[in-house]
């Protein structure tokens, strides 16, 4: 029969938690909690105290786990902000036999503030060492802790059969646990705080944007005033440089347009005088007299003379 069942005086197979009286009777044979004090019993639960060490996460910030390790004292408080994780270790050592199983949790008073145990809820049979709790502040306000504060509870129960081997536990918090808490752990309240920060940043950006809009509007008025004063000067400068050339171009364009409307050829400016046009009905011309030919004239004279008998 397992040892726990013998102490409880009940048959094997009926699992139940130890009462305060069972704690006291069993502790006379074996010290399940180092420096056992029956004053720490309450309805079968033994009150465990917070030890002198803690490792705290950085919350929702990006600062990492630097300075995560904290050394506690009865006069120096540990403040857990909303959204922070922490590794906590007990002041007492737990020494279970292989026939006893332990159950752990945070006290009701500290849980009502928002501190939640997320590390597990049992202690293996045969465990020997201090207990490490992983807690999370899920509440809306910071939670203040100090060394010696009885914030943990331990229940014991008989374990059917015998455990495999005894397990050596911890005497202090391993420093490498700080690396596991590196990074961000958002909770609803941490996200709310971060959201408020972002709102403040957005308001600042809106204020800056409004100032920029005012500056742009003011700059627009400056440009308009400058344009009003510079327009006459620019117009006179443009006229003096391009007025004549532009006037000639416009005159040519207007004359060309007028000629197209009247179906006449547009006059060509600055051209030489053209030859007078030929008459529409020129007078008929007689053929020019033939030139005098001496041979022909002699023959005509001979034929004109009378022939003799």
Automatic annotation (TrEMBL):
Transmembrane parts of this sequence: 219-245
Chain residue ranges for the region called Disordered: 262-309
Basic and acidic residues composition-biased segments: 298-309
Record SUPFAM superfamilies: dUTPase-like
Record-listed E.C. numbers: 3.5.4.13
Pro residues biased stretches: 276-286
InterPro entries found in the cross-reference section: dCTP_deaminase, dUTPase-like_sf, dUTPase_trimeric
GO terms, biological process: dUTP biosynthetic process
Gene Ontology MF terms in the entry: dCTP deaminase activity
Keyword Membrane set for record: yes
Keywords, in A-Z order: Hydrolase, Membrane, Nucleotide metabolism, Transmembrane, Transmembrane helix
Biased composition (Low complexity): 287-297
Superkingdom field: Bacteria
Listed name of the protein: Deoxycytidine triphosphate deaminase
Species lineage: Bacteria, Pseudomonadati, Pseudomonadota, Alphaproteobacteria, Hyphomicrobiales
